[in-house]
Specification:
The complex is a heterodimer of chains A (522) and B (91).
Chain A (H helix, E strand, L loop, with lengths): L3 H21 L14 H16 L5 H16 L7 H11 L2 H22 L2 H11 L7 H16 L2 H18 L4 H18 L4 H9 L4 H29 L7 H10 L7 H13 L4 H18 L5 H4 L1 E5 L5 H4 L5 E4 L5 E3 L1 H7 L2 H19 L2 H13 L3 H18 L3 H18 L4 H15 L7 H11 L1 H4 L11 H4 L4 H16 L18
Parallel strand pairs in A: 1-2
Antiparallel strand pairs in A: 1-3
Helix pairs in contact in A: 1-10, 2-3, 3-18, 4-18, 5-8, 5-14, 5-17, 6-8, 6-12, 7-8, 7-9, 7-11, 8-9, 8-23, 9-11, 9-22, 10-21, 10-22, 11-22, 11-26, 13-14, 19-20, 20-21, 20-22, 20-26, 21-22, 22-26
Chain B lengths: L2 H6 L16 E5 L2 E3 L4 E6 L2 E5 L10 E10 L4 E11 L5
Parallel strand pairs in B: 4-6
Antiparallel strand pairs in B: 1-5, 2-3, 3-4, 5-6
Classes of the chains: A mainly alpha (522), B mainly beta (91).
Chain lengths: 522, 91
């Protein structure tokens, strides 16, 4: 039986070979030199800042318009035939890492929405009430549980989706500050992406730095542990000082009193996902088993009817309407209201705009790679900044941060910067484990901090569905991605730990200190 | 290495100029060539090991060397080339 790590590392290795090929292959020439290849991504970031930050419009489809305009704008700077530019957009959009993220979002979306339909949020509220976990402790508990789930299933994106759909509304209802709570969820995702042996970012970091996955994970506990302890303290302090939104006593009491413990049976559904993933099954398989378990619980325990999971709203005028009306997943409606619905439908649908956006962004970053923009930035760093081992390590941390600010999918950002981390690190004989840790920690952390980062956007997308789910959840409770960045405590502490490590030599090891058990290359 | 050691290895502050003992055999990346004799160089942190008999054109390769002498005040040492471990990273 192949393990997730085997499957993933095979796929990752393939992707890495393609990335190396892309760097070596024919380039796109721009008027204005290599730096002009950063125009599409640069214009998009500007658009995102203006749209989300200044104009306060949190519309993902608006960002798609921004990325499309940016890609067209960049084309006017291309020298000669524009065909290579156009082909590069295709090449970027078909990268496997983008598909991996999309799969995680869709599956986690279906799963989380089905748990939601089955009253899991009500169960959480009941448990928080029974265990007296008030608004003060809710963020720290959320951070720990999200961290646990993400470490178990290896996808921070999936964890963000599940926790935003489930823990977020429960926490907001009992009076936790929504921005802080969203930050705690993202922190848990950072923790898991960084530490999980089956996480894509962990695998990329190990493979590209010629190190074994087990050794890399073992050697990163010291950094992740320090950051997590600080984050726990920070969430307790912030939880006691930041107030929540007043939902209205009546609505709150009504929800709490109607919350039943039975929804907590879905903890089993979640354990099925963790157990299947940890035992080595692919994440698609793991979440599918969890989904099936949750549907069985919903239907057999009366938590939700089949039509809450999947429903065909058939127009009464349809010729077969009467003959299929008896089916549990068929609902007869007026002619104008025909549709498909249920948790499987809405769970997946919520991510469609984001999926398109992310595909376009990775296309834009591919243009930057092909146009030599990345190379120019890295060479500048290598020759001018990395002149001593301390400065080299600081450059590695900041360079990884910079690339993550340009590429929304953290695994894609990691693949782009990995060769440079290897090059800079080898110039000073920095041990592969150390290089892998610098690479992965900062990729994991910043992929959930920048407001346009995939992790933040996917949580925001999941949040959009909440006002439709709960009467008391208003649009004003949705957290704008631009406001959450200061509260992703684990992410910031992890980044801070690495800045300090680079400056002081904490955890630094040299190639001569020990040899990593080299990973098998595909 | 025990499991615990694997987790704790590297815990602490490390000098930017590591020292080596005479006779110590280590595996390092060859980081360049320099000096009047064009000797191979392995920069380890901000310490430099000179390897006069290193094969030419192997920059970036991982080599096993034996440290022959080391000056702790200048952070430089002389080493002998033993073998090439790998030709360098594919990435």
């Amino acid at each position: 039986m192949t393990t997730v790590a085997d499957d993933n590392s095979g796929e990752v290795a393939e992707e890495l070979v393609e990335a190396a090929q892309a760097r070596a292959d024919s380039k796109i020439s721009f008027y204005g030199g290599k730096w002009a290849s950063t125009i599409p991504i640069g214009t998009f970031i500007l658009w995102a800042i203006v749209q989300s930050g200044i104009l306060r419009i949190g519309d993902t489809t608006g960002l798609i318009a921004g990325m499309l305009v940016s890609l067209i704008f960049g084309m006017f700077f291309v020298k000669g035939d524009w065909k290579t530019y156009a082909n590069t957009i295709f090449e970027g959009m078909t990268q496997r890492v983008a598909a991996t993220a999309i799969v995680a979002w869709l599956w986690a979306g279906m799963f989380a929405n089905t748990l939601q339909a089955g009253g899991f949020v009500g169960g959480l509220v009941w448990a928080a009430d029974a265990l007296s976990v008030g608004p003060t402790l809710f963020p720290v508990v959320t951070f720990l549980l999200a961290g646990l789930l993400a470490t178990g299933i290896g996808t921070g994106y999936g964890t963000t989706v599940a926790f935003t759909a489930l823990f977020f509304p429960a926490g907001v209802l009992i009076g936790t500050n929504p921005v802080l709570l969203f930050g705690a969820i993202l922190s848990g995702a950072v923790f898991g992406d960084n530490l999980a042996p089956v996480s894509d970012t962990t695998i990329v970091s190990a493979v590209t730095q010629d190190s074994d996955i087990g050794g890399v994970v073992a050697s990163r506990f010291k950094y992740a542990g320090v950051a997590a302890v600080l984050a726990i303290v920070a969430y307790v302090i912030a939880g006691s000082s930041m107030t929540g939104i007043d939902i209205g006593q009546e609505a709150q009491q009504l929800f709490i009193s109607s919350s039943e413990p039975l929804g907590l049976v879905h903890i089993v559904s979640i354990l099925v996902v963790i157990g299947t993933a940890v035992s080595g099954r692919h994440i698609i398989e793991a979440i599918s088993w969890g989904l099936l378990t949750s549907i069985v619980f919903n239907v057999t325990l009366g938590l939700a009817p089949v039509s809450d999971v999947l429903v065909f709203n058939v127009p009464r005028t349809a010729s077969v309407a009467d003959s299929v009306a008896f089916l549990p997943f068929v609902n007869l409606v007026d002619a104008g209201n025909a549709s498909v619905g249920g948790s499987i439908y809405t769970g997946a649908q919520g991510f469609f705009p984001l999926i398109v956006l992310v595909l376009l962004i990775v296309a834009g970053s591919q243009i930057m790679i092909r146009g030599g923009g990345f190379e120019a930035i890295q060479n500048l760093l290598l020759s001018k900044v990395a002149t001593s081992v301390r400065r080299a390590e600081t450059t590695m941390v900041l360079g990884t941060a910079f690339v993550n600010s340009m590429i929304t999918i953290n695994t894609a950002a990691e693949i782009a910067i990995a060769p440079y981390i290897a090059r800079i690190g080898q110039q000073f004989n920095i041990n592969g484990y150390r290089r892998a840790n610098i690479l992965d920690a900062n990729t994991s952390a910043l992929g959930y901090i920048f407001p346009w980062a995939g992790g933040v956007l996917v949580g925001y997308a999941a949040m959009q569905g909440l006002p439709g789910q709960y009467e008391w959840f208003t649009q004003s409770m949705v957290v704008n991605p631009i406001t959450v960045w200061p509260f992703v405590f684990h992410g910031w502490f992890l980044f801070g730990v690495f800045i300090l490590s680079a400056l002081t030599g904490f955890g630094l090891e040299y190639t001569s200190d020990r040899e990593s058990e080299e990973v098998t290359r595909v | 290495m025990s499991v615990l050691q694997k987790y704790l290895k590297g815990f602490g502050l490390r000098s930017s100029t590591p020292s080596f003992d005479s006779g110590q055999e280590v595996s390092v990346f060859l980081t360049g060539y320099g000096g009047s004799d064009g000797a191979g160089l392995a920069r380890v942190g901000d310490t430099t090991l000179r390897i006069p008999d290193a094969p030419v054109g192997k920059e970036g390769a991982r080599v096993r060397i034996r440290v022959e002498s080391f000056d702790d005040s200048k952070h430089v040492g002389e080493a002998t080339y033993l073998e090439t471990v790998s030709e360098g990273s594919a990435f």
